[in-house]
Amino acid sequence: MIYLDNAATTRAFDSAVTAANEAMRDGYFNPNATYESGVKAREKIDAARKTIANAVGAMPDELVFTSCATESNNWVFACGKKYKKGNIVITAGEHASVYEPAMRLKSRGDDVRIAPLTENGNVDENALLRLVDEETALVSMIHVSNETGVENDIKRLTEAIRTRAPRACVHSDGVQGLLKTGRSLHDLGVDFYSASAHKLGAPKGIGLLYIRRGVNLAPFLAGGGQERGLRSGTQNTPNIAAFAAAVDEFGKVNDCAQVAALRAELCEYFGSHGCKALGNTSNSGYIACIYVPDVKAEILQNVAHDRGVAIGKGAACSGSKRGNRVLSAMGLKQIETECCIRLSLFADTKRDDALEAAHIIIDAARRLGSKHVG
Ligand code: PLP
Q1: Domains in the chain: ranges and CATH
Q2: Which residues in the chain land under pLDDT 70?
Q3: pTM beyond cutoff 0.85
Q4: What CA–CA distance (Å, rounded) separates 144 from 282?
């Protein structure tokens, strides 16, 4: 199988599997117990937190482990605005795990403002800043789009937001951006940043929320007071160990420029066969969103899978909803959004495999009757 659906999830690195296995087999003790084995389990968590913090450019005490990025995003919306009055600003490019919590607040009477996207898929920066005012309590901007791979300039936007709305909290959903843009979390300057381990070669079921030092966030899950009282629940030691191992491995094998060059090559190939790559400006390099005329992405996805190629389509995480909110916000007609496939690369994607997959997809599109793919 040629796997090009890495934005949805990645295969765990062997080193991550080994780390998880060891933690389950030998280090299974309660990391909050005071006896020696528990203390050792706790030390593993501390070491993992340090490894991840070093890699992402944060302090260990700024990282709180959660079960996934969906939880991290929901936490920010449930608690980040809780004690502050004021409006909320998000972008039209948000993943459902930000968009839906924001809509829930809106349905409860909050003033939720949505900044439009450009045709390229970035947030329209001027329009976003016009929505931000002194009453803004929370701004949430996706770092790298899960649909197109386009990167928003979070550092520049955060600085501009702070001058307009000094008391606002700034959050970024960094699931597709962590370790893939060359930017450290401190450099971005945000208050909160969400990330997910299974996009980086670790198992599912572990994520994190970065909370900048000095910023208060009420706990989302109350209970035994783990994670410095911020996120109760016995820590997932196997997955935390695997997360750190994956981050370590990713750092060794990943080459952002090489991945971006492969994306560019793929986009050119599709372009020369009657398709169109979206979001080519300021793209992080890991995601290629390709419009394939006349062919429904879902059908192409299944045919490609039968021929040994796994790809994504728009809104891969959101199941059965028709159309695609984000691609529509970029100006595509609904019928066009339904013909967009997503090829997402990872640190270990091989060039030959990716090009072979592209060839298979074009051939399948032709056989499925596209009049424009040639
Ligand atoms: N945010 C973005 C941008 C994503 O791409 C995803 C998953 O694809 C999520 C959030 C949700 O991540 P998780 O599966 O860890 O909840």
Answers
A1: 2-10+254-367 (3.90.1150.10), 14-251 (3.40.640.10)
A2: 81-84, 315-322
A3: yes
A4: 10
